[in-house]
């Protein structure tokens, strides 16, 4: 049982409540992750700022979701894989084939997207020490140094949320239920 509660606008500190209000306006509801992060105005501000930066990256929406899903699958985060699966399918236009491959840890048919996912997984699994081969494959797939750094921003964002969800045992929102995912041991 978690010691964390999913806060709402009335139970969160004023600085966090203001952010929750903006999140609700943007998405039509307050995701449970945001309610958990609201315990700390610094944590929720950091997550929102990183999320906005990821959306401003040079990656397409599908590529952004592929990175975020790859990190979340590697970290075994049931909540984030479920949430980003919904976003990938319904907001970023990711094909069911790519989504299923990402969720199951299999190779994607699109070579460039697959290279992006493999590089992201290497960054996560090596704790930021990807192999020279992985970096070479990434750049040979026509990804830039800018994008390499932007992968790190995505990894930072998802590490914050994945670890929060692990510790808080954040319940998956009904909005993501269609895409429920659980780590296979």
Instruction: Please name the CATH architecture of the domain at 59-155.
Output: Up-down Bundle
The CATH superfamily name of the domain at 59-155 is AhpD-like
Q: With helices defined by DSSP (H or I, 4 residues minimum), what is the helix count?
A: 9
Basic shape? globular
Helix content: 55-70%
Unreliable sequence segments? none
What class would the helix/strand composition place it in?
A: mainly alpha
Strand content: under 5%
Q: Averaging pLDDT over every residue, what do you get?
A: 97
Q: Provide the CATH topology of the domain at 59-155.
A: AhpD-like
Q: According to CATH, what is the class of the domain at 59-155?
A: Mainly Alpha
Sheet with most strands: none
Rg, Cα atoms, Å: 16 Å
Can you describe this structure?
The protein has 185 residues and is mostly helical. The protein has a domain at 59-155: AhpD-like (Up-down Bundle), CATH 1.20.1290.10. It has helices spanning 14-27, 32-37, 41-55, 61-74, 78-90, 96-104, 111-125, 132-140, 145-168. Helix 3 packs antiparallel against helix 9, helix 4 runs parallel beside helix 7 and helix 4 (61-74) packs across helix 9 (145-168). The longest helix has 24 residues, at 145-168. It is globular, with a radius of gyration of 16 Å. It starts with 13 loop residues before the first helix and ends in a 17-residue tail after the last helix.
């Amino acid at each position: 049982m978690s010691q964390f509660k999913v806060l709402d606008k009335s139970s969160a500190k004023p600085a966090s409540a203001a952010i929750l209000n903006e999140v609700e306006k943007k998405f039509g509801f307050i995701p449970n992750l945001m309610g958990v992060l609201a315990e700390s105005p610094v944590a929720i501000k950091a997550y929102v700022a990183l999320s906005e930066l990821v959306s401003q990256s040079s990656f397409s929406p599908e590529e952004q979701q592929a990175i975020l899903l790859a990190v979340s699958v590697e970290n075994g985060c049931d909540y984030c894989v479920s949430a980003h699966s919904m976003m990938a399918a319904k907001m970023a236009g990711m094909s069911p084939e790519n989504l299923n491959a990402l969720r199951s840890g299999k190779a994607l048919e699109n070579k460039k997207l697959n290279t992006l996912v493999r590089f992201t997984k290497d960054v996560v699994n090596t704790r930021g020490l990807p192999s020279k081969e992985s970096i070479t494959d990434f750049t040979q797939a026509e990804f830039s140094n800018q994008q390499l750094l932007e992968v790190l921003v995505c990894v930072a964002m998802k590490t914050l949320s994945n670890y929060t969800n692990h510790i808080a045992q954040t319940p998956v929102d009904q909005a993501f239920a269609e895409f429920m995912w659980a780590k296979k041991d």
